[in-house]
Amino acid sequence: MAQSTIPLSALSAQWHSENGAPPPRRLIAADSTLRADVAYRLACEGTALLWHGDYPDALRLLSAMRRRAERRRSRSAPTTHDSPAEAFHRHRRERARLARVLGMLLVPLDADRRIRLDRAPDVRAACLAAYGPFLDSRILSLRELLGVIGAHQWRLKGVEVPALGARIHPHYGVFSPVRGEYVDLVARAPLPPAVHDHPLAHDLGTGTGVLAAVLAKRGLGPVLVTDTNPRALACAEDNARRLGLADRIRSAGTSLYPPGGDRAALVVCNPPWLPHRPSSALEHGVYDPGGRMLTGFLDGLAARLLPGGEGWLVLSDLAELLGLRTRADLLTAIAAAGLRVRGRLDTRPRHPRASRPNPADPLHGARARETTSLWRLAPA
Fold it and tell me: If we measure between CA atoms, which residue out of 255, 267, 248 comes closest to residue 229?
């Protein structure tokens, strides 16, 4: 194939990236005549490939590029001499590089949300659910589009939550409650005395609304939910309607705490567990830069609790095992916020990444030793 550079000014489609990636500086038209080795080299050099072949060939090329990237990643994997923190940071750098390189294979999307490629699937419903309506053509990475398709399938199918006896349906860009052990902690922790007279609760950073639903099922309400991600608030409202709990769960906006200063008998927060910068919208459910959400929750808690109320902090010790935070750091932050620990419930992870040895996962050792805790906090 003759490779011709396409100036961005010549394109009539808008660049689209949910992760905020800038538009590529160089584009070449690509089809099935482009060899995978060449495609991978160009992507590593920062040249984007705007696909003009058929859709299945684009998937095959993306897989071939991934295999080449994985081979390079194995050569730069953490060594036995790395500390847990060094292994984590090396792992994150390689994941970011992998995302950047694979994100260079682009596909065109029409204003009616159809992929302009032969033998392409119908992605209109998935794109409408993720992006909403738009009136112009778009260019986006095939990798992102596959994420949109996969997220829509999760949304339609839902995730079974035993603590609810029902399914939760995650929306695009909202972290899915696939790790049920932390939900079980909230379902079985003893409720504080204040809920008997004042059953108002707050769920901060609600995500899908799964913890708010558990609290509502336990008789609390209204449960005011917040999240910095508007998609999460819409997702929580959708799940509340599906579960018949819309009258007990209310959206309270995108601030950490609900505005107005109302006190609650119970304030629950399951912040992202790792104090590190996220590289995508979905990773905001895992990474909390500098521990800002954790600190904000602790510092504001005492002033938001009714007498006899509690704050429940649901947090993994994975950051401690990786050397990103110490237990002393956490306890110091709790004390500095004028709080004391009234009790703690612990559980071990049940997900396959913790139980099945995986030599390719440099963080497996830490995952296998991980403990998730529900810290019952009260004013000192």
Answer: 255
Comparing 113-117, 153-157, 361-365, which segment has the lowest mean pLDDT? 361-365
- Distance (Å, rounded) from C-alpha 288 to C-alpha 146? 25
Mean pLDDT confidence for 191-209: 96
Are 338 and 305 in contact by the 8 Å Cβ rule? The answer is no
**The two three-digit tokens of residue 16, written as one number:** 């689209």
The DSSP call for residue 25 is S
Cα 120 from Cα 100, distance rounded (Å): 24
Q: What is the phi/psi pair of residue 324, to 5°?
A: -95, -20
Q: The pTM is what?
A: 0.92
What's residue 8's pLDDT?
Answer: 45
Reduce the DSSP state of residue 139 to 3 states and report it.
strand
Q: Can you list the positions of beta strands (E) in 169-292?
A: 201-204, 223-226, 249-251, 264-269
Angle, vertex CA 15, rays to CA 14 and CA 19, nearest 5: 140
Helices (H), the chain: 36-44, 55-75, 84-102, 124-131, 142-157, 181-188, 210-217, 230-242, 292-301, 318-321, 327-336, 352-355, 364-368
Q: What is the predicted pLDDT for the residue at 91?
A: 86
The CA distance from 250 to 140, in Å, is 35
Where in the chain are all domains bearing CATH 3.40.50.150?
159-379
Task: Specify the 3-state DSSP secondary structure of 310.
Answer: strand
Residue 142 to residue 159: CA distance in whole angstroms: 25
| pLDDT at 346 > cutoff 50 | yes
Query: Looking up tokens 């080449």, which residue turns up?
Result: 68
Residue 121: count of CB within 10 angstroms of its CB = 13
How is residue 121 written in tokens?
């699937």
For the domain spanning 159-379, the CATH number is 3.40.50.150
Instruction: For 266-306, write each residue's pLDDT tens digit.
Output: 999 999 989 888 877 778 888 999 999 999 999 999 999 99
pLDDT value at residue 72: 77
Taking the mean position of all CA atoms in its chain, how far away is CA 131? 17
User: Could you tell me if 347 and 184 are in contact, meaning their C-beta atoms sit under 8 angstroms apart?
Assistant: yes
Q: How many CB atoms lie within 10 A of CB 114?
A: 16
pLDDT tens for 16-40 read 999 888 999 999 999 999 999 999 9
Question: What pLDDT score does 356 carry?
Answer: 66
